[in-house]
Argininosuccinate lyase (Acetomicrobium thermoterrenum DSM 13490), 471 residues
Amino acid sequence: MRLWKGRFSENTADVVVNFTQSLDMDWDLAEADIEGSKAHVRVLASAGLITEEEKMALLKGLDQVLSEIKNGTFKPLMELEDVHMNIEARLTEILGERGKKLHTGRSRNDQIATTLRIFLRRQLVGIGSKIRNLLESLLDSAERHIDFVVPGYTHLQRAQPISMGHYWMSHFWAFHRDFLRLMAALEALDECPLGSAALAGSTIPLNRHLSAELLKFSKPTENSIDSIANRDYLADFHHFASMFSIHCSRLAEDLIIYNTDEFGIVKLPDSFCTGSSIMPQKKNPDVLELIRGKAGQILAGYVDLLVVLKGLPLAYNRDLQEDKRSLMRSLRTLHGILDVLPQLISRIEIDLTAASRALEDGYILATDIAEFLVLKGVPFRSAHELVGKAVKWCLKEGKSFSALSMEEWRNLIPQFDENIFGCLNPKSSVERRKTYGGTAFSEVKRQVEKGKALLGEMEKNLATWGEKWAL
């Protein structure tokens, strides 16, 4: 079934058929494509272009095709190129000449632009629900670990004591921003290109506002050329996916490091790790390593799409067929990460013995001591220099801050008094950092409560989109 056979004197070469077919990446669009076609049938009927009997036959035939696809009896043919033509060919087999009326006033250009939006909006609502689950697991972990004091790191060196709950909440806020990006991507999808035809609209009197209404879009797109050329909404999705995968990768990297024997702060569950084929002692964080690795695939998908788009003249070019390859791969990867990561986070334990040992070693309270001096009237830069010299002396003498006597402190910093020992407690250090958004236990509790309220808002937003699109 070659759509253009009237123009050509030769059949398409088999090698060209194999090279140009897109079934390996667009067959997942079948249900969305049929949804768009059913709306188009109703628009054709409303314009008097098909009879009521033809409308009902086409709708029933499309339902039969969808049923065959779902139960696996539909076998798509590569020589028909893509999902659209396979569905239309099967419909014509079922209905005969009536099936040939389906494509009236429509091009595959506006058809795929519509199908992609229908498909992607369903996917994004599902992903949004899974991100909410991830955020809920982070909130639970934050609440469970509020009073767990652990080292915070900069440059992978011990920096300052923090609440482990504060650490979990730092990832909560990053993933919440990803959720907001997802909501923005959904907004960008909410226009209907159906009826734009190849690029110039149609001489056939199609009601594009009715198309948008039937498919539950807020409005039709404004310009038929832009309707066909536009893939911004895919770039919006890929931007969201890339930022989300970066945040997942950073979290995975942290947990991999904190799980090593050298750090030992994080304990991963056996059921989310694997062993070695040769080393009996190994317990490998493969899930986290794969999350880190798969993030690269998602980033590559974003670049893939942008490179396809950057040099295209308006309106449609066959290059756009390739936009689905990176889309499908990124969607599969996102779903996989979101299925496993919340469960892993909920099972992680914190080794307080290892954390305490790391807090006692070194000079993690140096900033607290400098701030102690500031509160006694010493300019901060002077305090910074004094404490830095104290650290240098301790390193030379092989002593930690906690091992110094008052006499030694005063020899190093004359402004010291007995109150300094209140600064030499990691838990006290955490409790004193009460600035808004700080690591103080009270501030972490505030963040957790705010996070719980946001979960409720997220659920409402997802429900609104789901109800709008009858998902």
Summary: The domain at 110-203+228-357 is CATH 1.20.200.10 (Fumarase C; Chain A, domain 2). The chain has three domains: 14-104, 110-203+228-357, 366-423. The chain is about 60% helix and 5% strand. Strands lie at 149-154, 157-163, 266-267, 349-350.
